[in-house]
Amino acid sequence: MEIRQIKVKSYSGYKANERPTSFIFRDRHYIIDKIEKMWYEENIDTSQGRKRFFQVKSNDDTTYVICYDESTDQWLLKK
């Protein structure tokens, strides 16, 4: 599984980077049409902190998994 750092435009409501709205991958802009699933993973034994995962459907009708790493303030794409 390939993990790549990506640029994400996100909605910030009561907290920063609450959910992704679009992203850029390989110089192409994708609009997120739907968030199909969201979950958290937290590693309490290390300093890696919490990650938020979003399974999204984009405007190219493809499903992607996007991760926001709260400890590093980075967005990642799992492909």
Give an overview of the whole structure.
It is a single chain. By secondary structure, the protein is mainly beta. The protein has one domain. It is 0% helix and 68% strand. It contains no helices and 6 strands. The chain is globular, with a radius of gyration of 12 Å. The mean pLDDT is 91.
Task: Supply the key terms.
single chain, 79 residues, mainly beta, 6 strands, 0% helix
Query: Which outline best applies?
Result: globular
Instruction: Tell me the number of structural domains.
Output: 1
Structural classification: mainly beta
- Estimate what percentage of residues fall within beta strands: over 45%
Helix content: under 10%
Q: Note poorly predicted spans.
A: none
User: What would you report as the Rg, rounded to the nearest angstrom?
Assistant: 12 Å
List the secondary-structure elements in sequence, H or E: EEEEEE
Largest sheet: 6 strands, antiparallel, barrel
Number of strands: 6
Individual helix count: 0
Nearest-integer average pLDDT: 91
Summarize the structure.
This protein has strands at residues 3-11, 19-25, 28-43, 49-58, 63-69, 74-78. The protein is an all-beta fold and 79 residues long. The chain has no helices and 6 strands.
Describe the protein's topology:
Layout: E1 3-11, E2 19-25, E3 28-43, E4 49-58, E5 63-69, E6 74-78
Antiparallel strand pairs: 1-2, 1-6, 2-3, 3-4, 4-5, 5-6
